[in-house]
């Protein structure tokens, strides 16, 4: 740690589905501008963890602090928190009956009550950045999976979040479209966006992550600088995982 105050702190976060413990007391601190890759075998709780950070799951214990303010209390307005912590999912979740531009403008206009021309200008600039400025008036059905996912990222960015959560955003894409989406995320990393990225793309994680957390059965099994994790994982379990993926 460089001594900076973490923008996000997670303390003893516990999540159960019925009797089943899915997150078993997760502790994590994320400094501003850091990129954290979250790796681990299927079912270990990666998605659940991100969903908890976005208020999409009820938790049974522990705390989440954003800029030192607890989010785990009854007065938290997750709608407002989601303007600060953006999330992109595997399944894009674009509204099929709205154009690309309308999808992007929805939250900034309706939730943030921002000025239309200002948001439109920002949306166009973001679309330009991801190479899709000419698709603003298209409907999602007219786009490829990779294009839809880039639009979903633009939609999240247009809210001006301080932190971005990515949950296996390339998992349902054809291999040739994975690159174009990962490039957009890599660009964001370069620009200093704070990000938590759940991914099975090991080479990508190696490229963009400052730090890796390796989860197993609801616990953080190993946490290390990316360089160290990929060259010399300290736990046998993490080593096995990387071997299975033939990294
Ligand atoms: N709504 C739910 N009800 C009950 N159990 C659930 C629910 N959602 C997830 N689980 C269980 O919680 C555990 C963690 O799931 P989660 O989706 O967080 O894992 P993951 O690490 O993201 O897996 P993957 O890499 O396959 O996406 C799994 O055992 C899963 O079956």
From TrEMBL:
ATP-binding among the record's keywords? yes
Q: Name one Pfam family in it.
A: ABC_tran
Signal peptide (residue range): none
Per the database record, which ranges form the ABC transporter domain? 8-242
Q: What is the lineage of its organism?
A: Bacteria, Bacillati, Bacillota, Bacilli, Bacillales
Which CDD domains does the entry mention? ABC_HisP_GlnQ
A Gene Ontology molecular function term of the record:
ATP binding
Protein family membership: Belongs to the ABC transporter superfamily.
Protein name in the entry: Amino acid ABC transporter ATP-binding protein
Q: Which Gene3D superfamilies match?
A: P-loop containing nucleotide triphosphate hydrolases (3.40.50.300)
Q: Please provide the record's keywords in A-Z order.
A: ATP-binding, Nucleotide-binding, Transport
Q: Give the species.
A: Ureibacillus endophyticus
């Amino acid at each position: 740690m460089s001594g900076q105050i973490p923008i996000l702190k997670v303390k003893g976060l516990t999540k159960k589905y019925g009797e089943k413990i899915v997150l078993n007391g997760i502790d994590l601190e994320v400094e501003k501008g850091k990129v954290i890759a979250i790796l681990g075998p299927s079912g270990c709780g990666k998605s659940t963890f991100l969903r908890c950070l976005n208020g999409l799951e009820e938790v049974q214990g522990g705390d989440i602090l954003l800029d030192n303010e607890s989010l785990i209390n009854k007065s938290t307005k997750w709608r407002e928190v989601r303007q600060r912590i953006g999330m992109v999912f595997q399944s894009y979740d674009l509204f099929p009956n709205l154009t690309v531009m309308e999808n992007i403008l929805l939250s900034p206009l309706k939730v943030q009550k921002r000025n239309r021309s200002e948001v439109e200008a920002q949306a166009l600039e973001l679309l330009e950045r991801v190479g899709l400025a000419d698709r603003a008036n298209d409907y999602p059905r007219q786009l490829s999976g990779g294009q839809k996912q880039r639009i979903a990222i633009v939609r999240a960015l247009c809210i001006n979040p301080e932190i971005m959560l990515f949950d296996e955003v390339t998992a349902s894409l054809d291999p040739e479209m994975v690159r174009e989406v990962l490039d957009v995320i890599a660009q964001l990393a370069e620009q200093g966006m704070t990000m938590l990225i759940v991914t099975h793309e090991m080479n990508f994680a190696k490229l963009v992550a400052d730090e890796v957390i390796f989860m197993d059965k609801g616990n953080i099994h190993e946490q290390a600088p990316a360089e160290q994790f990929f060259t010399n994982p300290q736990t046998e379990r993490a080593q096995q995982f990387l071997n299975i993926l033939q990294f």
